[in-house]
Recover the amino acids of this structure.
């Protein structure tokens, strides 16, 4: 009985560690993938849905389908729990597999990536050193923005970054 309670508390702790999806899709997805992987529930995200059972299906086929369906059901429940109702509203009804659900949610955040890229690029180009921090910290801040842009698939060359830094320094 103690191991059942301990198992339930571990599952609860894992589920509670999923952050609420807001504008943090990449972090949210990474957390979901890690948690589902640790709980051994990521089968539906890693493999295609098995073919339906037939008269010729073996016990092993039945076991594989049951395991995949459980993974899919649990994955959907855990993902939906971490998503505000506004995001999952119309997606929830149409989509029946965890991998499709994840793709649909990801589509909604592609637009956000473009907006974030635009905002970061504007911030980087318009930065001016005002002397409030050390030049080193200022350059690191610019490098950090360049790293965020790289993560959003907009890689700036090192030469361009050096020129942006030099242009932003006082004459």
């Amino acid at each position: 009985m103690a191991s059942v309670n301990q198992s339930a508390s571990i599952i609860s702790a894992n589920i509670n560690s999923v952050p609420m999806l807001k504008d943090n899709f990449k972090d949210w997805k990474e957390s979901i993938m890690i948690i589902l992987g640790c709980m051994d529930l990521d089968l539906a995200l890693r493999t295609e849905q098995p073919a339906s059972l037939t008269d010729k299906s073996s016990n092993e086929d039945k076991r594989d389908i049951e395991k995949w369906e459980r993974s899919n059901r649990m994955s959907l429940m855990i993902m939906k729990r971490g998503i505000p109702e506004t995001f999952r509203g119309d997606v929830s009804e149409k989509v029946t597999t965890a991998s499709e659900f994840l793709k649909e949610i990801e589509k909604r955040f592609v637009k956000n990536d473009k907006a974030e890229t635009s905002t970061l690029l504007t911030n980087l180009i318009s930065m001016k050193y005002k002397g409030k921090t050390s030049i080193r910290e200022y350059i690191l801040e610019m490098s950090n923005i360049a790293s965020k842009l790289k993560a959003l698939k907009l890689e700036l060359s090192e030469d361009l970054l050096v020129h942006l830094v030099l242009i932003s320094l006082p004459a």
Remarks:
- The mean pLDDT is 85.
- The chain has eight helices and no strands.
- The first helix runs from residue 2 to 16.
- Helices lie at 2-16, 25-38, 43-46, 59-81, 85-94, 98-126, 135-151, 158-168.
